[in-house]
Amino acid sequence: MKLLYGVEKYYYANMIKEKADVKNAEEVKYANMINEEVDVKNAEEVKYANMMKEEAIAKNAEEVVSANMVNTEAIAKNVEEVKSANII
């Protein structure tokens, strides 16, 4: 009976160890999931930042185009004034 008690104790110790290993494995898996979620969040933030940057660049490009159109209109207006002045 004493030997059996020792075997049961050893078996119980193994079960506890397995539970601890499983718990550790779950914690590692959970940590990896958290890490992946953080990586995804960071990737989304970088993507969003790039989109914002692209929108800013596009806005700047639109402003440059608009400024050039205004400049062209001003030149055209000046040409019309010169043409008008020559006619007079």
Overall pLDDT score: 84
Summarize the helix and strand pattern as letters.
H
Low-confidence sequence ranges: none
- Helical residue percent? over 70%
Q: Mind summarizing the main beta sheet?
A: none
How much strand content do the residues show?
under 5%
What class do helices, strands and sheet pairing give? mainly alpha
Radius of gyration: 37 Å
Q: How many DSSP helices?
A: 1
**What is the CA–CA distance across the termini?**
128 Å
Overall body shape: rod-shaped
Number of strands: 0
Notes on the protein architecture:
The mean pLDDT is 84. The protein contains one helix and no strands. It has one helix at residues 2-87. The chain starts with a helix and ends with a helix. It has 88 residues and is mainly alpha-helical. The chain is rod-shaped and about 125 Å long.
Task: Record keyword descriptors for this entry.
mainly alpha, rod-shaped, 1 helix, 88 residues
List the helices and strands and how they pair.
Layout: H1 2-87
Summarize the structure.
The chain has 88 residues and is mainly α. Helix content is 98%, strand content 0%.
